[in-house]
Amino acid sequence: MEHIDTNARKRTASRSGCPCEFCQQLDPQFPGRKPMDQLVLPNRKHTAAAHLTEDGYVRHRVLELARMVSRPPGTAA
Ligand SMILES: [Zn+2]
Questions:
Q1: In angstroms, what is the span from residue 29 Cα to ligand 1's centroid?
Q2: Exposure b/e, 40-72, CB count within 10 A at least 16 = b
Q3: H/E stretch holding 25
């Protein structure tokens, strides 16, 4: 099981998050996502775990993996 910070998510889910910059840049489908699936917790790095929804989390992970396999090992900046 992947770890997701459910407490942090519950605390902030009702407030506004901010759109994930990582997903915004890498996901062509980003504007088509549900608004909640675009958001990450405020004051957090834009990581998969910071996403407010399961779907957002999964999409972020998929983007990360896709980026990983599209680059030769050792060149990740
Ligand atoms: Zn993201």
A1: 12
A2: bbeebebebbbbbbeebbebbeebeeeeeeeee
A3: helix 21-26
- CA nearest to 26, candidates 55, 75, 68: 68
Ion ligand 1 residue ranges (Cβ < 5 Å): 20, 22-23, 60
Q: What average pLDDT does the segment 4-10 reach? A: 57
Q: pLDDT tens digits, residue range 31-60?
A: 999 999 999 999 889 999 999 999 999 999
CA of 56 to the centre of ligand 1 (A): 6
The pTM (predicted TM-score) of the whole model is: 0.70
Residue 3 CA to ligand 1 centre (angstroms): 15
| Ranges of each domain in the chain | 6-69
